[in-house]
Amino acid sequence: VANLSQIPPDQNGNYKLEVGLENDILGIFTIKYISNSLINYFQPPIAFNISTSASSTPTAPICQASYLPLILYNTQSISTPSPFQQDIAICNGSINIGPNFAYINNATLFNKINSNGLNIYFTTTCNSTPNIYSWYEGQFTYNGVTCDVWWIKLPNGIPANSNITIYMYIGNISDNYYQQYYPYVGQAPKLSLTYGQYDNGNYVFLFYDNFAGTSLNTSKWSVYGSLTYSVNNGLSVTGSSSCGPGIESIATFSPPIIVEGYASFGSDKSKATNCYISGLGIWYTSGGGSNSGGQITHGWAPDSVKAFAINGWTGPTNSISFWSSADNPQPSPNKYYVWGLAYISPSLAIGYVNYQQVSSTTTTIQNSGSLTVIIDLQYNNVFPMYYYWFRVRSYPPNGVMPSIYIG
Fold first, then answer.
1. What is the phi/psi pair of residue 177, to 5°?
2. 15-48: b or e for each residue (b if 16 or more CB lie within 10 Å)?
3. pTM surpassing 0.90?
4. To pair with 153 at 20 to 30 A between CA atoms, which of 5, 19, 96, 395?
């Protein structure tokens, strides 16, 4: 194929290339350019019609132009977990928010996507209906660049130093695939005209809740301590005048994992205490029951209290190790952000805001025993908090999300 440009095309602009072993022709390949502005933006792709020398009937289908091949490449020497939650972000510019977020810079493609993600679905096979669960998180803007963000569930993950190909179908801007293909195609709860109508987060993530309705789902959460909260298509927590109460997940997980919530934090300084404030927390246990190991917390607080903290204690000595990153830029109160906290190993924890790392520690916070984590939505927080969804997802290999290329 290296000298393909030296071979004259036929009257239709196609090239024919014979491939064989010695004098035995194995097949005839028709190679042609596809007229698709989305793909030619990156490189001239080729389509293969493969036939034997005895027949001209194609044996391999050609993907329709609306099926955009996406190559997901795991650059790490370890495989992703199975299943694995992969982000697919289409942006109208170049951004740099760290290795835990993969994106494609393609303004042409971005402009073909409905602002509510209605006209997109994902599949493992071209020319087919969706068979990959996808959850549209919505748009977010960073330094003037806007991205459409999906999360998809890959049941078998991606092997080490390897890649897989999936297809992103791009329909007309007015198509509604939530209505047509739910639950394979879904979206964050606030994006629905009826709250959570097409929310399929339970199909995508390891753990998920959108707090629909007017009561807390007691199969997923328990409340401990004296805590004031309410549920009305979202969770509102007004906190307590004392340290300690919270809302704890009943499910447990083994690290490495990332916990995230779409949350906003109020700024009522009148309720400030000396508690370390957190919006997301993880208890880790050392072979015992709940709260027998320590905690990691991450959240926003007024200047009078630590802005960010990862803290923990180990074993029966109850020795305290505390780390703070108060100098890191903190988001404004009363605005919604994706707050994340990764518990990677007994000696590594990382905090995120909108997929950007804001703090980490490599100090040992757990040195013996088996490790299980229990998620806290709120711990030692006396400030107003508001959640619209909460999830647990797999940690990418070495913290590097598989990269995305258009095939």
1. -85, -15
2. beeeeeeeeeeebbbbbbeeeeebbeeeeeeebe
3. no
4. 96
